[in-house]
Amino acid sequence: MLKPSIFPTIALLAILTACSDTPAPTTAKKAPEKVEPITGQSAVFKMYGMARSWASDAQVLRMQSMRLTDVKEGAPGTAPAWQATFVSAAKLQSRGYTFSIVEGEGNLHKGAFAGPEESWRGPRGTDSSFLMAAIKIDTDAAYKTAMETPRSHAAEYDKQNPGKPISIILERTTNHPNPAWRIFWGESAGTSNFSVLIDASTGEYLETLR
Fold it and tell me: Which residues have C-beta within 8 Å of that of residue 35, sequence separation ≥ 6?
């Protein structure tokens, strides 16, 4: 009687051993998330969604760009973080919100974040809210209008003050019916000696404040 050959068994063991020695495929590392400063209109819409969950009648009172030392400056008219105040006439309360592209110092969180509620006396002069629908012009377009309008003197001032920080505020002003983007040069609006108002609803140049 012929004895069964052991060669098929040896061959099978060799194949299994070779397969077990094959290194497992490595998982490709994800590239770090790229974050870019965003425009004011984009930021306020992101905060508005959260504000509506707080009060269905929420309206914008004001908003301002924020500079972060650890984030590289973006395109003109953008900022790495924005801070807005929304109000509710039904609640007679206001609430601050922030939107940031990164985690920051203090209480600044990535994404939209709500602050505490505060009392609000209702509309009084420039301390009056406005509908989201009034914000039809974005900050990059407002900046471009300011720089390209000769009578604003923005391009001239910017050239004479290279490197001076530029910030943007959305607010209601005394002399104009629509909310305006206020583009100002300096550390704060209170200490700035040059700013340009652009209508946030029509995109028209309004005036230059010195």
Answer: 71, 80, 101, 102
pLDDT at 124: 84
State how many domains the chain has.
1
Q: How far apart are CA 101 and CA 31, in angstroms?
A: 17
Domain coverage including residue 174: 38-209
Please give the mean pLDDT across all residues of the chain.
Answer: 88
81 in a domain, yes or no?
yes
Give residues with Cβ within 8 angstroms of 187, minimum separation 6. 165
For residue 201, being part of any structural domain is answered with: yes
- Closest residue by Cα to residue 64 from 81, 42, 86, 45: 81
E strands in 75-131: 78-79, 81-88, 93-100, 111-119
pTM, two decimals, is: 0.83
Average pLDDT over residues 119-134: 90
